[in-house]
């Protein structure tokens, strides 16, 4: 629901994609997560709520105006103590962050940015053993590049998903009407 109320600064993720991402990352309370491509913060809020009350999200955005707006949004909705919002190009500077994000200290990482294959080594550096990495890519060429970079870095069980949502139509009927129709056919 939060996603629907946002003033969009970027293209956002909606419930079907968010649910798949959170589930595949296996997020739970206490997890520490890095995210690159904060954007509007739609996924960020869902990540934060998944790791509460003892977890933390470290989110990175290369566009300073978007980063500051998202940081303000986190404060406005009362989540700022569970998130560290940083203006940074992780492709060049990685995820290490003072004493907060160190090598082998992160449970899960999420990438939603241009050229994500360049961020894979940086994510690998901060992930714990058996930590999970998820990348959101709009095109198959990007998926192929990221999958190759992940395999080269030592990731395994690399999978690609397409999440489609389809509203179903239903009709009201009774079993009596079904049996009547069947008897009419005979």
From TrEMBL:
Enzyme class: transferase
Recorded GO CC terms: nucleus; tRNA (m1A) methyltransferase complex
Any GO MF annotation of the entry: tRNA (adenine(58)-N1)-methyltransferase activity
Compartments reported by the entry: Nucleus
Keyword tRNA processing in annotation: yes
PROSITE patterns attached to this UniProt entry: SAM_TRM61
UniProt-listed GO biological process terms: tRNA methylation
The enzyme's E.C. designation: 2.1.1.220
UniProt binding sites for S-adenosyl-L-methionine: 61, 89, 112
Positions of the tRNA (adenine(58)-N(1))-methyltransferase catalytic subunit TRM61 C-terminal domain: 2-178
Segment forming the signal sequence: none
InterPro entries xrefs: SAM-dependent_MTases_sf, TRM61_C, tRNA_MeTrfase_Gcd14
The entry's keywords: Methyltransferase, Nucleus, S-adenosyl-L-methionine, Transferase, tRNA processing
Alphabetized PANTHER family for the sequence: TRNA (ADENINE(58)-N(1))-METHYLTRANSFERASE, TRNA (ADENINE(58)-N(1))-METHYLTRANSFERASE CATALYTIC SUBUNIT TRMT61A
Name of this chain's protein: tRNA (adenine(58)-N(1))-methyltransferase
Species of the source: Strombidium inclinatum
Taxonomic classification: Eukaryota, Sar, Alveolata, Ciliophora, Intramacronucleata
């Amino acid at each position: 629901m939060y996603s629907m109320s946002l003033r969009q600064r970027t293209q956002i993720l909606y419930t079907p994609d968010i649910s798949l991402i959170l589930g595949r990352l296996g997020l739970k309370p206490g997890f520490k997560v890095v995210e690159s491509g904060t954007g509007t913060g739609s996924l960020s809020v869902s990540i934060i709520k998944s790791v509460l009350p003892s977890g933390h999200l470290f989110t990175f955005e290369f566009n300073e105006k978007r980063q500051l707006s998202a940081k303000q949004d986190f404060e406005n909705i009362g989540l700022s103590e569970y998130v560290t919002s940083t203006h940074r190009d992780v492709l060049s500077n990685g995820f290490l962050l003072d004493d907060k994000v160190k090598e082998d200290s992160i449970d899960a990482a999420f990438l939603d940015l241009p050229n994500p294959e360049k961020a894979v080594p940086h994510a690998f550096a901060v992930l714990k053993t058996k930590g999970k990495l998820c990348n959101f890519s709009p095109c198959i060429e990007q998926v192929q590049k990221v999958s190759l970079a992940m395999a080269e870095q030592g990731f395994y069980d690399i999978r690609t998903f397409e999440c489609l949502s389809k509203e179903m139509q239903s009709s009201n009927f009774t079993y009596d009407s079904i049996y009547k129709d069947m008897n009419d056919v005979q």
